[in-house]
Amino acid sequence: MFFLRNKVKTGVTLVLLILYWLWLPSTLFNKPCSTVLVDEDGQLLAAQIASDGQWRFPQMESVPEKFEKCITHFEDEYFYYHPGFNPIAIFKSLKRNVGAGKVKSGGSTITMQIARMMRGNKHRTYYQKIVEILLAIRIECSYKKSSILKVYASNAPYGSNVVGLSAASWRYFARSPEKLSWAESALLAVLPNSPSLIYPGKNHKALINKRDRLLKKLFDKKIIDESTYNLSLIEGLPEKPFPLPQLAPHLLSRCITEHGPSKIYHSSIRKSLQTQVNTCLLYTSPSPRD
Known about the structure:
Layout: H1 2-22, E1 35-38, E2 44-48, E3 55-56, H2 65-75, H3 87-100, H4 110-118, H5 126-142, H6 145-155, E4 162-163, H7 165-173, H8 182-190, H9 204-220, H10 226-233, H11 249-259, E5 264-266, H12 271-284
């Protein structure tokens, strides 16, 4: 009887482990993406909004170093050392929540935030937090830390209908993430923390305070020097989103028709030359009376 009971327990444990392993989908996010056309150097030529009305670029190939430093020091300082959750952060969060009598702080790691986004940002409860921890551990078993950062950066909310670092960088600063300054990278690191309440063009003081606290932390950790820190503090915020470039809309439409949407298309076009051509066509086009 004892042997049979142990065999049943082993079988149940094995089934649960298999189910836990199969819990994670092959693709973490299946939402539609914008279709993007870039030039020979990877610069944005044109983009079409995703079918769900979101500016969400396809997953990034890499995360710029400045943003990587900013996001880990703001959201998850021990990102490279924990297995998906930070026990100390969870304990401190639980202590604060008990004292407040409600869930005020989650203690979530970057991986846990991915788990929460995957599940539709469900209402914060202790049960949901346990589910996020288990799912975060499972994600860490299958993905490298660099891949987890790319997934987060590509799917973090940035207010309005802007999703992901690439789309946010172009919408708020009109350039690619690799060309952002430390102040701009810090801004885009703190923005997903409150995307529905704080975004460029609204609540500037609160947003600047968050950005500057992160910059101070980077300075204290000797990641940026004093000159960079002081110059970053005086950088302003964008007043409103920029329109995305539409330098080659006909080629973009052709790519979508022939090969489908939600992709990044690399062309042999040179952006500077295409801009000059468009300008010439604008001034040489016949008027309606001609």
